[in-house]
Write a structure and sequence with these properties.
Order of helices and strands: HEHEEEEEHEHEHHHEEEHHEE
Radius of gyration: 23 Å
Largest sheet: 6 strands, mixed
Oligomer: single chain
Shape: globular
Number of strands: 13
Helix content: 25-40%
Structural class: alpha/beta
Distance between the termini: 29 Å
Strand order of the largest sheet: 4-3-2-1-7-8
Strand content: 15-25%
Length: 327
C-alpha cells in the first residue's frame, strides 16, 4: 500500500499548487484520488463501491468521510457513516455520506475559493457543500492530473509489483495457449497466476480474445495459425499495469516472424526516442513510419495509440497518440 509519509508529501505539494491558484480548500470525491492523498483504498476490487469525500485545507486541516475508519490514513480526522444494518447494505449510501458531510462542514470557516473535481462530484454533495461554504468554485482536475504524472517512490513500488504480477500471468498463459484450448481457460490461467503472484485477491483481466484486436475472453476454442493478442491489465493495491503481448498459436509463419522482428526493433529503440519534453504525437508518427517500412504494413501503419501512462488509473497521460498531444 501507499505510505503515509508519501501521502503527506503529496498533500503538501498539492497544497502549494492550490495556494498559488488562490484556492483555500478542496473536496476530493474520486476514491482513487482519496487513496493517492490518504493511503486508504476505498471501493477497490473486489469490494463494493461506497462513496466518500476528502476535505483538505491549504492550511493543513484534513478530514475524510467514508463508510469505514479501518486502516491508517494521512488525515487529521475520520468521519464515518453507516453503510449496512446487520450486514445488509443500505440502499442509500450517498445520502448517508451527505448527512455526515453536512454536519462536519458546519465547523469549516474562512473558505473563499473551493477546489472541486468536475469528473466525480455528485450533485447532492455539491449542493450540500455549496450551502455550507459561501465560496467560489474552481475545478482542480487538470491541476491534480499534472501532479500525478510524476510518481513518488511508494507509487513506483506499487507499479512495479503490478507489472511483475502481470508478467507472471503472461508466463502462465504462454504455457496454456495451444490449439483446442478455450479462451476462458486461458483467462482463468492468467487470473490464477496473478492471484498467486500478488498473494491477495486482485483484478486481472483485459483483452483475452484470440484472433481479434481486442475484447474479453469468449467461450471459444482457439485455432492453430491464429495470433493471440492479450492486452492484460492487473490492478495491485490501486495501481495498474497494462501490458500487451502477442502469441502465435502453433508455429509462427515466416510473415509473422518478419513482422515480429520489425516491431521488436522498434520497441528496443524506444528508450533512445523518449526524452523529457518531447511530444507524444511526434513519437507516434516515428513509430508509424517505422512500421510502414515493412512491405506488408506500408499501407496500414499504426492503427492504435503507441502507449500511455499508468498509475491509479489504467490509462493516464501522457499518451503516444496521433490525435491528442502528450508531453
Amino acid at each position: 500500500m501507499l505510505t503515509l509519509e508519501g501521502c503527506r508529501k503529496r498533500q503538501a505539494r498539492f497544497c502549494e499548487r492550490l495556494t498559488k491558484e488562490g484556492i483555500d480548500a478542496v473536496v476530493i470525491t474520486d476514491y482513487r484520488d482519496i487513496y493517492y492523498f490518504t493511503g486508504v483504498l476505498l471501493s477497490a476490487y473486489p469490494a463494493f463501491h461506497f462513496p466518500s469525500l476528502l476535505y483538505m485545507e491549504t492550511g493543513g486541516n484534513t478530514w475524510l468521510a467514508a463508510n469505514t475508519d479501518v486502516g491508517d490514513a494521512a488525515v487529521d480526522e475520520r468521519v464515518v457513516y453507516s453503510s449496512q444494518v446487520m450486514y445488509t447494505m443500505n440502499p442509500d449510501p450517498m445520502r448517508g455520506l451527505n448527512a455526515v458531510v453536512a454536519k462536519r462542514l458546519q465547523a469549516c470557516k474562512g473558505v473563499a475559493c473551493l477546489g472541486w473535481q468536475q469528473e466525480s462530484m455528485p450533485k447532492l454533495l455539491a449542493d450540500t457543500v455549496s450551502d455550507a461554504l459561501s465560496a467560489s468554485w474552481l475545478p482542480i482536475d487538470d491541476l491534480l492530473m499534472s501532479q500525478q504524472m510524476k510518481k513518488d517512490a511508494d507509487e513506483v513500488a506499487m507499479l512495479q509489483k503490478a507489472i511483475n504480477t502481470n508478467l507472471r500471468a503472461y508466463d502462465r498463459v504462454q504455457e496454456v495457449i495451444a490449439p483446442g484450448v478455450n479462451e476462458l481457460d486461458v483467462l482463468a490461467a492468467g487470473q490464477q497466476a496473478a492471484l498467486h503472484a500478488a498473494e491477495y485477491v486482485l483484478h486481472h483481466g483485459g483483452d483475452y480474445q484470440c484472433g481479434e484486436l481486442g475484447g474479453p475472453a469468449r467461450d471459444r476454442v482457439i485455432q492453430a495459425g491464429e495470433l493471440y493478442v492479450i492486452d492484460a491489465q492487473t490492478e495491485y493495491h490501486g495501481y495498474w499495469s497494462d501490458l500487451c503481448r502477442t502469441f502465435a498459436v502453433s508455429e509462427p509463419t515466416d510473415l509473422q516472424v518478419s513482422v515480429y522482428e520489425v516491431l521488436k526493433a522498434i520497441l528496443e529503440d524506444i528508450p533512445n526516442l523518449v526524452k523529457p519534453g518531447s511530444k507524444g504525437t511526434d513519437l507516434w508518427h516515428i513509430i508509424d513510419a517505422r512500421i510502414r517500412e515493412h512491405k506488408h504494413l506500408k499501407d496500414v501503419g499504426l492503427i492504435h495509440h503507441a502507449g500511455h501512462g499508468v498509475g491509479i488509473r489504467a490509462h493516464e497521460p501522457p499518451d503516444l497518440n496521433r490525435d491528442r498531444e502528450g508531453i
